[in-house]
């Protein structure tokens, strides 16, 4: 569809808070961490960036935040080029880094107040108190940072990033090392932020986190963005279902059944279970034929249930696929479990 | 201009100083007192006056300069090296803060600390020797300029160093010799002729000379030259710092 450039630009300003255009990064070591990344982030969404260790997630975030220099390409935050218009761009960004890097002898309150000042905001004790309370850190406000636990330090980093009321928040593995209860609280906090209009980009290795929170998901593998999709669409499109049949008598080989694709069937639990994988989007699931064929073959069934594949299954499938495509060298991407 | 950031950095650095108040104030005062006891009283009594000033009084400006230089360099270099080392520098790099604002915060705090220290040493000195300050305004100006310049130099050192050894080796191998050879304890014209020429390549000579002039009105080099060389060094250091932050050298991958 043809669009006028001005209209396109207007549309971008309205919808996209972050525009990443052909960004590549080759480190001084010669390692190419990112190859030609194009990505637009919509205003107000929660975007989850997934990928195995070393995929380039942190590198991408670091480039947007001005911590790493891109080798090529351009980045705009709310229309401000991060190089030419760096001050305006950075004022909008909050970053929670992956590494637990904190001062040691500063107090919690001191550290958070410092962050707000650094980002050019006048002091606002009420806002700081709100942030610390929402992260269950208010009681610790006068504690020195060395005395905090790992999970508390992680939350302190979140508090520092929120201290200056960013419009675009990067959370690089925000819940690593945070216990289950607090993780749920942090998710709720992120949703609250989204409700106030903050755009959130998070990376995580907990797929349930992306499944739980994200509006859209991007999957990055070996420096390439291999997929960007609405989470719902993704799970809908790629979601496979499995029908598990508990057998009366264990089988030793997968039975050949007429009208049923043999690679759709696998045995599990020492042959006590027969698993049928099907695409639930397909109108014709083949389930009826399967059951009919089983009864004709005299294979009796005790019980049955269906399961739906999670984002994790999708993710592992995709990354393994992209690793298989570039089989030039066996890399650690394939080792992801 | 992000003044909130300048204030935040400055306050943060001053808080760090306050936490280590004892070691940062007490040790220079003790070591300076020792210098007075040894050089001023024990040895000084056997040395005739230099340019009409008793030897004990003569070394006061040099001693202040000595602590001013070493303290400025070590404060400022540590102030920026540590965030690089611990990784907390990510926040500074991602913040809407210009190189100049960064310098104002960090170097301002380091310079403040060493100026306060210089004044404490000056006060300590009055307990040992009678002092006169002929040009107090110039004295303060030299104090400010020197503290700023060498804090800036220390800042570059902290940005450049890739380890604690490098951080310590420069003050030890460069600053200390330059200060000792810079006329802290003697007048340049007490040196043999060849050495006098060589001494003029030592920037510290200009600082000590100008500073001593503000006390006793007696200088090894013309005051204008002292001032000019110091300002030149300051400007050069500033250009280097701005370049480092612009390019991200040693800061960004
Ligand atoms: N400063 C650096 N110098 C050289 N190579 C680097 C540097 N930082 C990262 N890399 C390399 O770039 C690649 C991408 O790293 P990055 O940290 O972006 O991965 P990631 O997706 O965040 O991984 P993880 O899930 O483990 O955090 C890796 O191969 C890594 O070794
Ligand atoms: Mg990472």
Molecular structure report:
- The complex is a heterodimer of chains A (337) and B (253).
- With 337 residues, chain A is an alpha/beta fold.
- Chain A is built from eleven helices and 14 strands.
- Among the domains of chain A are: 6-92 and 166-236, P-loop containing nucleotide triphosphate hydrolases (Rossmann fold, 3-Layer(aba) Sandwich); 240-308, Alpha-Beta Plaits.
- Helices cover 34% and strands 26% of the residues of chain A.
- A six-stranded mixed sheet of chain A has the order 6-7-8-3-9-10, sandwiched between helices.
- Chain A is elongated.
- Chain B has one domain (3-247).
- Chain B is 77% helix and 0% strand.
- Chain B has helices at 3-19, 21-43, 55-86, 89-94, 99-128, 136-160, 164-180, 193-199, 203-216, 223-247.
- The longest helix of chain B has 32 residues, at 55-86.
- The two termini of chain B are 27 Å apart.
- The mean pLDDT of chain B is 89.
- Chain A binds chain B through residues 27-28, 62, 65-69, 86-88, 90-91, 93, 95, 97, 99, 101-103, 105-106, 110, 113-122, 160, and chain B through 2, 4-5, 7-9, 11-12, 15-16, 19, 86-88, 90-98, 248, 252-253.
- The structure holds adenosine-5'-triphosphate (ATP) and magnesium ion (MG).
- The site of adenosine-5'-triphosphate (ATP) has 13 residues of chain A, from helix 2.
- Adenosine-5'-triphosphate (ATP) is lined by residues 27, 29, 31, 33, 51, 53-59, 98 of chain A.
């Amino acid at each position: 569809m043809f669009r006028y450039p001005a209209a396109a630009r207007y549309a971008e300003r309205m919808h996209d808070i972050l525009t990443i255009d052909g960004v590549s990064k080759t480190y001084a070591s010669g390692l190419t961490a990112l190859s030609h990344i194009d990505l637009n982030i919509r205003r107000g969404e929660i975007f989850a960036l997934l990928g195995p260790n070393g995929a380039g997630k942190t590198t991408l975030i670091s480039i947007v935040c001005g911590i790493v220099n891109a080798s090529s390409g351009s980045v705009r935050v709310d229309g401000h080029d991060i190089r030419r218009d760096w001050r305006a761009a950075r004022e909008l960004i909050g970053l929670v880094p992956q590494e637990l890097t904190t001062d040691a002898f500063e107090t919690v309150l001191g550290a958070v107040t410092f962050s707000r000042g650094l980002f050019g905001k006048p002091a606002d004790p009420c806002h700081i108190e709100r942030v610390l309370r929402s992260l269950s850190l208010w009681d610790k406000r006068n504690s020195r940072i060395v005395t905090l636990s790992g999970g508390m330090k992680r939350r302190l980093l979140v508090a520092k990033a929120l201290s200056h009321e960013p419009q675009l928040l990067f959370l690089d593995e925000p819940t690593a090392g945070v216990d289950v209860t607090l993780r749920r609280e942090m998710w709720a906090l992120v949703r609250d932020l989204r409700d106030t209009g903050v755009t959130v980009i998070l990376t995580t290795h907990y797929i349930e986190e992306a499944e739980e929170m994200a509006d859209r998901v991007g999957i990055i593998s070996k420096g390439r963005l291999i997929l960007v999709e609405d989470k719902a669409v993704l799970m809908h499109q790629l979601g496979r279902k499995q029908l598990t049949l508990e057998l009366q008598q264990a089988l030793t080989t997968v039975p050949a059944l007429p009208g049923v694709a043999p690679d759709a069937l696998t045995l599990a639990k020492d042959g006590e279970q027969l698993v049928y994988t099907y695409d639930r989007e397909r109108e014709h699931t083949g389930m009826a034929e399967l059951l009919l064929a089983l009864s004709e073959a005299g294979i009796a069934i005790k019980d049955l249930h269906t399961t739906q594949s999670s984002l994790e299954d999708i993710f592992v499938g995709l990354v393994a696929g992209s690793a298989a495509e570039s089989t030039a060298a066996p890399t650690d991407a394939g080792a992801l479990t | 201009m992000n003044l909130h950031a300048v204030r935040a950095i400055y306050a943060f650095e001053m808080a760090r100083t306050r936490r280590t108040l004892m070691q940062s104030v007490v040790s220079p005062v003790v070591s300076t007192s020792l210098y007075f006891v040894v050089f001023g009283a024990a040895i000084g009594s056997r040395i005739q006056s230099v340019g009409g000033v008793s030897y004990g009084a003569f070394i006061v400006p040099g001693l202040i300069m000595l602590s001013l230089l070493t303290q400025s360099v070590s404060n400022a270099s540590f102030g920026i090296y540590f965030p690089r080392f611990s990784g907390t520098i990510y926040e500074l790099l991602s913040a809407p803060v210009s190189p100049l604002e960064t310098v104002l915060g960090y170097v301002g705090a380091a310079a403040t600390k060493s100026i306060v220290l210089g004044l404490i040493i000056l006060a300590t000195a009055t307990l040992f020797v009678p002092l006169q300050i002929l040009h107090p305004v110039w004295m303060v100006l030299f104090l400010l300029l020197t503290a700023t310049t060498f804090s800036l130099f220390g800042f570059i050192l902290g940005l450049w160093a890739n380890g604690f050894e490098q951080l310590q080796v420069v003050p030890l191998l460069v600053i200390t010799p330059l200060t000792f050879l810079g006329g802290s304890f003697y007048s340049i014209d007490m040196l043999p002729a060849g050495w006098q020429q060589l001494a003029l390549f030592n920037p510290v000579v200009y600082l000590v000379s100008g500073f001593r002039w503000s006390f006793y009105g007696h200088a090894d080099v013309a005051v204008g030259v002292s001032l000019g060389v110091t300002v030149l060094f300051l400007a050069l250091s500033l250009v280097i710092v701005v370049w480092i932050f612009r390019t991200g050298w040693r800061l960004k991958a």
